[in-house]
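Bug #2210: token dump truncated for YihY family inner membrane protein?
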Amino acid sequence: MSLTRRVDAFQQRHAVLGFPIGVIYKFFDDYGTYLSALVTYYAFVSIFPLLLLASTILSIVLQGHPHLQQELIDSALSEFPVIGDQLKTPQSLGGSWTAILVGVIVALYGALGAAQAIQYVSNQVWQVPRNNRPNPFVARGKSILIILMMGIGVFGVSLANVIISRWTFLGDHSALIADTVAFPLIVASMMFIFQLSASSKVRPWHVLPGAIVATILLRVLQGFGSSYVSGVVAKASSVDGVFAIVLGLLAFVYLVAMSLILAMEINVVWRKRLYPRSLLTPFSDNVELTRADQAMYAGRARAQRYKGFEEITVEFEREPDQK
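Reproduced locally. Full output below:
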């Protein structure tokens, strides 16, 4: 037996290797990099208008409490390390109520694109047949719920941070306690978004592993984003700083999108047991497919069903490897 076959057999016998390989292979089988770019485009277009809209809402709701308004804005912007420091001074949509309404509509329109992209990605990852996906009206209704949950999640964490920061008796432990409280809040938000965006029979416990991983990755990316701001943006000139902010934000959003899609893949691979995969299956036809390989490829084919009365049959000339 060749070295490659021995390594392949070893990873198929050990889930600690087979599972992550299955997640990575499915990510590339689903063209995860392109799906990440799709989400990045819509999120990048909508993120600034949404932050401006949130600032406007806070300025109206907390009109008589400027200090609380500033604290909430600072805490919320800390979730976006690349541009947070650039928006510390609260700006809002000005003008008449008509102008504000127009601004709200524009911001929500951009956000709907991002939420629609998340639904599309989720359905692709879960291999939902096209005829089982929601119609345009239902899909946009779900998108509004996704946007609301994102907003509730961000400002829920922000409010918790503000409350805990005022508990002076905690001393130096306040930051650690705030992060501890924020973690389950973010996980719950992720679970809601992952479950709602999938048009298949997904239960909360089916998306819990991915929600936990997504929250951890998001926190890690926020740390890298903060380091990028302090190490690159702060030292750049005014012109270079603009490019550093734009490119940094684009990279940050792309990595966040990729993290979310990887988290979705974790849920699907775990739920449908799409592992272990044959080690060489992405590189050659001369392989013995595992049952997980066949289930993966058959699922992708059936996901292209456009009508309920359309039948898609998938056959493989070789029997699956029993490992």
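Output looks complete on our side. DSSP finds eleven helices and no strands in the chain. Marking as cannot-reproduce; reopen if the truncation happens again.
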